[in-house]
Amino acid sequence: MTAGEERDDADVDSTTSQPDVDSTTSRPDVEQSSDENDADVEAAAVPDEPVDPGETLFHESGGSWLAVLVGPVLVIVVLILEITGPGQVHWPILAIFFVILGGFGWIQRFAAQQHTSVTLTERTLRQGTQTIDLADIAKIYPANNSAEPKDWESAPALGELSGVPRRRKGIGVKLADGRLKQAWARNDEVFRSELTQAWQAVKMGL
């Protein structure tokens, strides 16, 4: 073996025996970064604790069983008249009408419960499917007993409906972001009293 070949072999040995400094020193940083990512994921996975709405102060279901029963009751009346009369009893037709009218009434009641129900608790107000915190209300306007309309009477209604539902009366409120809205209920006098008292209690921190 020549001297040049010996020097080449020595260079190869020194290269292969040199430790991987970069990979060894960077491993703790990688592990630390992984631990931080795991901690962030765990923190994000923990849901916020729901706020206790408190005791229910006012509730209107929004739907009535009368809408469900009217159709089937009429069909039963017709059935009784046909049974007691001299003519033929139309069982298939009456059965179809019974199912259709009963189902239509049930759908009406379900929709009314979803969109026109009201629930007021010590800390929240639910109108239809929308729920707001009483702390988000900045002002509750008094009832308008004059002939001149107020600005809040033309404001949108709380909830998913554009206006105050039929057979309900609006109560003007101003939200913390400055928007005018109308809370609403069928029994507006009792609702206004309960809403005002609950809102004042929240403002005082009670």
From TrEMBL:
<keyword id="KW-0472">Membrane</keyword>
<keyword id="KW-0812">Transmembrane</keyword>
<feature type="transmembrane region" description="Helical">
    <location>
        <begin position="89"/>
        <end position="107"/>
    </location>
</feature>
<feature type="region of interest" description="Disordered">
    <location>
        <begin position="1"/>
        <end position="57"/>
    </location>
</feature>
<feature type="compositionally biased region" description="Acidic residues">
    <location>
        <begin position="32"/>
        <end position="41"/>
    </location>
</feature>
<feature type="compositionally biased region" description="Polar residues">
    <location>
        <begin position="13"/>
        <end position="27"/>
    </location>
</feature>
<feature type="transmembrane region" description="Helical">
    <location>
        <begin position="65"/>
        <end position="83"/>
    </location>
</feature>
<protein>
    <submittedName>
        <fullName>DUF3093 domain-containing protein</fullName>
    </submittedName>
</protein>
<keyword id="KW-1133">Transmembrane helix</keyword>
<feature type="compositionally biased region" description="Acidic residues">
    <location>
        <begin position="1"/>
        <end position="12"/>
    </location>
</feature>
